[in-house]
Amino acid sequence: MPETWVISLGGNVITREDEPGRISDQFTHTAEILDGFLHAFRQNYRLVLTHGNGPQMGNILIRVEEGERRVPSLPLDTCVADSQGGMGYMIQRLADQLFRREGIKRDIATLITQVIVDETDPDFRNPTKPIGSFYSAADLELIRREKPHWILKEIEPGRFRRVVPSPRPLDVVEKDAIACLLDAGFVVIACGGGGIAVAWEQSRLAGLEAVVDKDLASGLLARQLHAQRLIIITTVHQVALSYRKPGQRWLSSMTAGEARRYLAAGEFPPGSMGPKVTAGIEFVEAGGAECLITSPDRVREALAGRDGTRIIAG
């Protein structure tokens, strides 16, 4: 059987920090990323594309908050679903365009994806994931009066944001449908934004006010599909020790054991490189050949073994 790859595209490489987040810019960056995988598209690999949605969700939530005096507010799980559809359309359209231009006989499909989480996950008691707008100290009284169920935390001095749970993903509901599409030759876009957080409440599947880390969800899906490669596209071309500190050292490879020791030493923060490395460790320890972490502009070099950071068993 051809190799299966799960490719995780970071939301911050689709919407860049130094840009206003225009849709046209997102299309441009996504097209550049897909071009980097042209060789993989030409091959007979079974490919799943996942993606983050942090900056995009921020924009969706601002629209919801600004519009809720005129239309009913949307719950967070519906907002994640909206981001999956919108971003999936973008990736799908650009891939179709690339395939036609390059004469590649492949089809691509977006699958709205739900991810099972545990409602007793510790993150529900102590939410950690910032979402939506920034607020000043002067805004707090009004926000707490209008949104008494929100939890607000000071993210930067004098700047506050809503935080929501980010529980661990346990199961991808549509994993069998994804496998069927792969068997039929489709490139599949799935687990957008980490998947829609859901939980079984007796016979009812409930959407939750939570967001799932897209790299942990991508790693879970890669394990469930028995993939050979997990590829994580982020803002840096390699993983570094002492990142942005004196003595910074880029890593071309590390074993799962080494990566665990670096994690325990605090080298990879939870809100940054930590989930990516954790996903890579869990993937290779479950039998995956390697996890590759790199940036959009170094994809070709990384796939050829000349750049990126590889996590391998050991």
Account of the 3D structure:
The protein is of the alpha/beta class and 314 residues long. It is 39% helix and 25% strand. The chain contains 12 helices and 17 strands. The strands form 4 sheets. An 8-stranded mixed β-sheet has the order 3-9-2-1-12-16-17-15, sandwiched between helices. A 4-stranded mixed β-sheet has the order 8-4-10-11. A 3-stranded antiparallel β-sheet has the order 5-7-6. Helix 2 crosses helix 5. The longest helix has 27 residues. The radius of gyration is 19 Å and the shape is globular. The model has no long low-confidence stretch (mean pLDDT 94).
The major beta sheet can be summarized as: 8 strands, mixed
Number of strands: 17
Main structural class: alpha/beta
Measured as a percent range, the helix fraction is 25-40%
Determine the strand fraction and express it as a percent band: 15-25%
What Rg do the Cα atoms give?
Answer: 19 Å
Give the gist of this structure.
This protein has 314 residues and is of the alpha/beta class.
Key traits:
single chain; 314 residues; alpha/beta; eight-stranded mixed sheet; four-stranded mixed sheet; 39% helix; globular
List the helices and strands and how they pair.
Blueprint: E1 4-9, H1 11-14, H2 23-36, H3 38-42, E2 46-51, H4 54-67, H5 76-102, E3 107-110, E4 114-116, H6 122-125, E5 129-136, H7 140-146, E6 151-156, E7 159-164, E8 171-172, H8 175-183, E9 186-189, E10 196-201, E11 204-207, H9 214-224, E12 229-233, E13 239-241, E14 249-251, E15 253-255, H10 256-264, H11 274-285, E16 290-294, H12 299-303, E17 309-312
Parallel strand pairs: 1-2, 1-12, 2-9, 3-9, 4-10, 12-16, 15-17
Antiparallel strand pairs: 4-8, 5-7, 6-7, 10-11, 13-14, 16-17
Helix pairs in contact: 2-5, 4-5, 9-11, 10-11
